[in-house]
Amino acid sequence: MSRIPLDGAPVAVIKIGGSILRRAKDYGRAAAFVRNRYRASPAERLVVVVSAQEGATDSLERTARKIARQAHPGVLDLLWCTGELRSVALLALHLQKLGISAAALNVHEAGLQVPDSECGVAGVRLNPRHLHAALARYPIAIVPGFLATNPAHAVVSLGRGGSDLTAVILAEGLDACRCELIKDVPGYFSSDPHRDPAARHLPNLTFEQALTLTDDGCDLVQRKAIEAAARCGLPLVVRSLDEGAPVSHITNAKIDVTWAETIPSAAAAT
Asked: Residues of the chain with pLDDT > 70: what percent?
């Protein structure tokens, strides 16, 4: 995967998932978070990966199945991409409202490419040409998650949770200083904090531990994204939009897991 120089400017990748974007007003909240990050580190370039609004992908699939029960996969991918592109545009508009200029890129401009149908998501690579040009003009580039292109230049999806994988591939390809995955909870817990007020926060995990949690049914971060980050040794930060809430770090470090004190349900439900 090729890396690109950006005149020494550090790059951070921030992924904002669909669970954050539940209502129209949530795009404004996400934009405020990105604005605060930009103001805190103005020398840093930000690449923001966004998912479709929560429920949009399922709704689009239901629409397709009503029309054609055996919808062509390529047509489904093209339909699905409209959800992500809508999120890219809405976030860019909300940033503009806040006085922040950002590049809003489409799937082809984002540069993720699948070499051939046999490689699957393990073969996704980054062609950074358009992204590099955008970051040369703007401090922030917003890209759609979950999607790439194939050698025929058609849009292809990376599977459910694929925005996490998008962020990892971009972070590794751009040699990012950090990769943050924004969720509706501040990281990993001993149980579902939305249902269990006694759930305890896990501030540090190894990739192996995160994969074990995934196998046990905790799909907070897409398994393929964790595997990709582990292969290139890319540390991940899993957090919520709440700057005051704790975060979870996933790294290669062989550490003893320590459980934080129980976090109030108000913090977990950000």
From this structure: 89
